[in-house]
Amino acid sequence: MPPAPIIFDFDSTLCAVESLDRLAEIVLADDPEAEAKVTEIERLTNLGMEGAIPLSESLSRRLATLRFDRTQVDALIKDLQEQLTPGLPEDTAWIQTHAERLHVVSGGFIDWIAPVLIPFGFRADQIHANVLQWKKDQSVGFNQDHPLAHNGGKPELARDLGLGPNTGLIAVGDGISDLELKRTGVAERFVAYTAHAQRHVVVREADAEATSWADLRELLDQA
Ligand SMILES: [Mg+2]
């Protein structure tokens, strides 16, 4: 059997922060209503994560609060490249060696996740995320038909890509949407990555917990 595929989450996993929150900070830097907008974005994030509103609604309402252009996305890309999980930027040799089985599946946006990760050895066609829609250089929304725009999108996409079940798939992440890969049986193992966020439910149901990139690498090399 070929080596098991691995699916990584991006926000608060490969990256130390939540990228949409960082984008909000960049976009709202000079906005007098910044504080109220950030509060509203956080509220919508939580409602989406708790399942109180559908993920697609949570995403579209957050994006509607933020109007941004490509220059701001470029600034975000630079910022996120400095905020990858500690240890990852020094480990590009491992990423390149294992690139064929490394996949990134994120509810964030491909528009910045791909440019952030590709220089570190991740393959462009193995990075999957939501897709922004643009009118010239201005963001006008996102593709709501993408599987990752919906609840349960990660297992659905992984299945579509043939990454599981019955491949020994290992999923790594910090959130419920990552844990769903294991709950649905698509992933065989789930590693809770808690270097940046630690959620009780996620850790409780995980097969293992990694508190750092070094820790995670050790687990993956033993698998
Ligand atoms: Mg995450």
End-to-end distance, in Å?
A: 13 Å
CATH superfamily: HAD superfamily/HAD-like
Mean pLDDT: 95
Q: Which structural class is indicated by helix and strand composition?
A: alpha/beta
Got a strand count? 8
User: Can you tell me the CATH class?
Assistant: Alpha Beta
Helical content class: 40-55%
Radius of gyration computed on alpha carbons = 17 Å
Number of individual domains: 1
Count of alpha/pi helices: 10
- Note poorly predicted spans: none
Task: Enter the CATH topology name.
Answer: Rossmann fold
Sketch the major β-sheet.
6 strands, parallel
Order of helices and strands: EHHHHHEHEEEHEHEHEH
Strand content: 15-25%
Strand order of the largest sheet: 3-2-1-6-7-8
Which ligands accompany this protein? magnesium ion
| CATH architecture title | 3-Layer(aba) Sandwich
Identify the overall geometry: globular
Explain what the structure shows.
This protein is an alpha/beta fold. The chain has a single domain (6-222), classed as HAD superfamily/HAD-like (Rossmann fold), CATH 3.40.50. Helices cover 43% and strands 16% of the residues. The protein contains ten helices and eight strands. It has helices spanning 19-27, 34-50, 55-65, 70-81, 92-98, 110-117, 153-160, 176-183, 200-205, 213-222, and strands at residues 6-8, 102-109, 127-130, 132-135, 138-142, 170-173, 189-193, 208-210. The strands form two sheets. The protein has a six-stranded parallel β-sheet, with helices on both faces. The protein has a two-stranded antiparallel ribbon with strand order 4-5. β2 (102-109), α6 and β3 form a beta-alpha-beta unit. α1 (19-27) packs across α4 (70-81) and α7 (153-160) crosses α8. It is globular, with a radius of gyration of 17 Å. It starts with 5 loop residues before the first strand and ends with a helix. 37% of the residues are buried. Bound molecules: magnesium ion. The site of magnesium ion has 7 residues, from loops.
